[in-house]
Specification:
Helix content is 34%, strand content 24%. It is an alpha/beta fold. It is globular and about 35 Å long. Strand 1, helix 1 and strand 2 form a beta-alpha-beta unit. Strands 3-2-1-4 form a four-stranded parallel beta sheet, sandwiched between helices. Helix 1 (13-26) runs parallel beside helix 2 (45-52).
Length: 94
């Protein structure tokens, strides 16, 4: 696996959808994985990922671990040679 993309999310469903769409487009020609770590969102973020993005690995945390711990927990799951950590309001160019 060439690249792991980790996105830590908290109540950012509208942004997360745009972010995931851009990451999926940008990684079409490389072996990659996308991991969304959710910090116990109360919006429909988890449902969105489950229903619209089955190719994404979802880590729904039972608590809000904050930025550092949330990312660290997700990074432990990453298998790529390279790692990219994104905020959910990021749009990746082609």
């Amino acid at each position: 696996m060439e690249l792991s993309v980790v996105i830590l999310n908290y109540n950012a469903a509208p942004f997360l959808r745009l972010c995931l769409d851009s990451v999926i487009r940008a990684t079409q020609k490389i072996t990659s994985e996308i991991i969304v770590a959710d910090n116990c969102s109360t919006d429909d973020s988890v449902q969105l990922v489950r229903e619209k993005y089955p190719q994404v690995t979802l880590l729904p945390f039972g608590s809000n671990y904050g930025f550092s711990k949330g990312n660290n927990l997700a990074v432990k799951q990453a298998r790529g040679t390279y790692l990219c950590i994104l905020n959910p309001d990021t749009i990746v160019g082609r």
